[in-house]
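Quick one:
INPUT:
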């Protein structure tokens, strides 16, 4: 997408539209961007001075450095903003694309607001205007008309819904009436992702979705596909290819506090959270630093599962039947919210979907519930009997739920109503024996840890077998947990070791 430099001077100061774009994109940029990857380019292009870089580098965490960088970026010119977006393209193309789309959206929204105001304050009697004022106003309106036509051509938008009545000349109503040209694009646009949907609380405290048409107008399919499924992942897997021979590394870790990993996740700051069993057979949830040194106990006993979502860490506890929320430093800053979350007798597995809802598997009733973490209300719960025995769930790009059903030796796919969409059991040498954990990468590929077969299976987004990524001959014994880290690699926890597998190039 090309910046419209015809009407915007690059040497001008950053506009309010640019600043709002950065503010709205922070939620996706902060957990995804390691500023150190682009800091040399930013210094070369004079986006940051040496003193600014020192201030950014002084922050201890990746998210802290990113926030400090974005604050500095609000001061320079539009040229610096454009240079920043260009710097992202090499390693963070999905972020560059997202920022451009959001900038376009903000510009259209601001134009709508400004034209609404112009219409409201326009004189009723144009005869009151002196000739010079009238000609100047007329020239501006003609320019607006020409630019609007060019935009509608660029976005391939029909204007049939625009009514010429005075009431419908309000631009907000006009933009609400704009629609994608269904003849040429309806079958080309993919299902919306989290970046294309606006959510608002419904009457039950849940989340209702409405398509953000301004953001979708004219968006090429390849842009949308580049967005990652999770904001905790740095690298999108969509445009990467699967390696013929995965690169396997055993991580050097200090995990004596929790040798047996039950579930695992990497956080946006590079640290980790795990759930497992210690030497005394207590089931704990622990927070580790980026060198795998235990920092803090989140749940002291009967911990069941952990899951991250941007700057939130969740841990479920069998004793209390609660799912607790922490910040990425392990500080429970959400006491008020925690008290409102529902009590579930046996919260064996947890995950987040793209609507930022907490998805909880109830090991007692074998149900899957969706919870709004802001209100604490249960939005949806499936019927009973969704699985036999499970310790891990994941959410697909389509917001369906994957269940690693140990008891049924299968991985099931259900929708939020509980309808069974697919059931994968494997075949031949790849028949599942004890599927212990499941996760999804940003391309929608499904990764399964089979505890009994000592291997890691890779499936396509459609649930078809692709290959074995790691097995016993590679040193894998009883895998118990899989997760995707920020680099797009797989973290594999076992009874005694931790592996990292690079499987995409």
């Amino acid at each position: 997408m090309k910046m419209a430099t015809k009407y915007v001077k690059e040497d001008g100061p950053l506009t309010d539209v640019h600043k709002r774009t950065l503010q709205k994109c922070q939620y996706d940029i902060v957990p995804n961007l390691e500023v150190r990857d682009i800091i040399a380019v930013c210094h070369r292009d004079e986006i940051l001075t040496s003193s600014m870089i020192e201030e950014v580098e002084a922050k201890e965490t990746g998210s802290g450095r990113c926030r400090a960088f974005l604050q500095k970026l609000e001061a320079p010119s539009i040229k610096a903003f454009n240079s920043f977006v260009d710097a992202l393209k090499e390693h963070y193309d999905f972020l560059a694309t997202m920022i451009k789309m959001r900038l376009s959206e903000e510009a259209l929204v601001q134009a709508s607001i400004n034209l609404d105001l112009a219409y409201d304050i326009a004189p009723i009697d144009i005869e009151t205007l002196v000739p010079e004022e009238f000609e100047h106003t007329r020239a501006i309106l003609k320019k607006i008309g020409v630019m609007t036509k060019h935009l509608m051509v660029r976005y391939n938008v029909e204007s049939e819904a625009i009514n010429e009545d005075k009431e419908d000349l309000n631009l907000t109503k006009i933009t609400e009436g704009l629609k994608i040209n269904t003849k040429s694009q309806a079958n080309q646009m993919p299902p919306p992702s989290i970046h294309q949907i606006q959510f608002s609380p419904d009457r039950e405290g849940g989340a209702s979705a409405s398509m953000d048409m301004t953001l979708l107008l004219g968006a090429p399919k390849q842009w949308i596909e580049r967005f990652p499924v999770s904001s905790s992942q740095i690298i999108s897997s969509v445009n990467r290819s699967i390696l013929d021979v995965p690169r396997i590394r055993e991580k050097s870790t200090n995990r004596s506090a929790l040798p047996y990993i039950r579930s695992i996740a990497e956080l946006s700051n590079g640290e980790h959270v795990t759930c497992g069993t210690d030497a005394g057979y207590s089931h704990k949830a622990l927070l580790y630093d980026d060198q795998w040194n235990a920092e803090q106990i989140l749940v002291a006993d009967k911990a069941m599962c952990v899951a991250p979502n941007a700057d939130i860490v969740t841990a479920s506890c069998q004793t209390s039947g609660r799912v607790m929320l922490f910040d990425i430093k392990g500080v429970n800053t959400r006491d008020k919210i925690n008290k409102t979350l529902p009590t579930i007798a046996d919260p064996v597995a947890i995950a987040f979907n793209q609507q930022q809802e907490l998805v909880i598997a109830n090991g007692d009733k074998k149900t899957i519930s969706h919870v709004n973490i802001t209100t604490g209300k249960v939005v949806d719960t499936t019927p009973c009997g969704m699985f036999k025995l499970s310790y891990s769930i994941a959410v697909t790009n389509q917001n369906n739920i994957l269940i690693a059903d140990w008891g049924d030796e299968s991985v099931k796919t259900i929708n939020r109503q509980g309808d069974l969409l697919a059931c994968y059991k494997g075949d031949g040498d790849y028949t599942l024996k004890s599927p212990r954990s499941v996760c999804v990468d940003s391309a929608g590929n499904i990764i399964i840890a089979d505890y009994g077969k000592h291997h890691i299976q890779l499936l396509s987004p459609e649930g078809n077998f692709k290959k074995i990524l790691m097995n016993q001959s590679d040193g894998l014994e009883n895998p118990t947990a899989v997760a995707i880290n920020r680099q797009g690699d797989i973290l594999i926890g076992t009874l005694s070791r931790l592996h990292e597998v690079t499987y995409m190039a």
